[in-house]
Amino acid sequence: MPACRNEHWFLLVGVASKKTWILHDSLPNPKRKDMARDSITVFQKATEKRTNYNFKEWSLILAKNIPGQINSYDCGVYVMKYMEHILKPGVLVWNSCHDWAEKMPLFRAEIAYEIFRTFHVDDDV
């Protein structure tokens, strides 16, 4: 679940089999766990009629050895890349991803290209 608090994006991944949330944060901050808990509470309220899980009771851990940002503005791109990497089939390994900061201009360009390539505007706009 992507979440944004105080102008910073982070990713929460729920692992139902372990009743655990994994917090993926490209710019770690001790206060982020509290922000993540707030996001989980919002998620709980939004889904309470659709599931029997009590997401607020799940443990919350920080993802380890994930790529981190070196500026104050790429957190959203990191969240997108985390999701892309997590959703790839196969074993989840972060070791090959620690050059993301160098590749951010390329990642931003790829995202812009995909939006440009797939976005269609009605004639009325």
Concise synopsis of the structure shown:
With 125 residues, the chain is an alpha+beta fold. The chain has a single domain (2-118), classed as Adenoviral Proteinase, Chain A (Adenoviral Proteinase, Chain, 3-Layer(aba) Sandwich), CATH 3.40.395.10.
Summarize the helices and strands and which ones pair or pack:
Blueprint (H helix, E strand, L loop, with lengths): L1 E4 L2 E8 L4 E5 L7 H16 L11 E4 L12 H13 L12 H19 L7
Parallel strand pairs: 3-4
Antiparallel strand pairs: 1-2, 2-3
CATH homolog superfamily: Adenoviral Proteinase, Chain A
Helix content: 25-40%
How many distinct beta strands? 4
Count up the domains: 1
- Main beta-sheet strand count, sense and barrel state: 4 strands, mixed
Low-pLDDT stretches are: none
Q: Outline, from the CA principal axes?
A: globular
Mean pLDDT level: 91
InterPro entries: Papain-like_cys_pep_sf (IPR038765), Peptidase_C48_C (IPR003653)
GO molecular function, one term: cysteine-type peptidase activity
Protein name: Ubiquitin-like-specific protease ESD4
Family: Belongs to the peptidase C48 family.
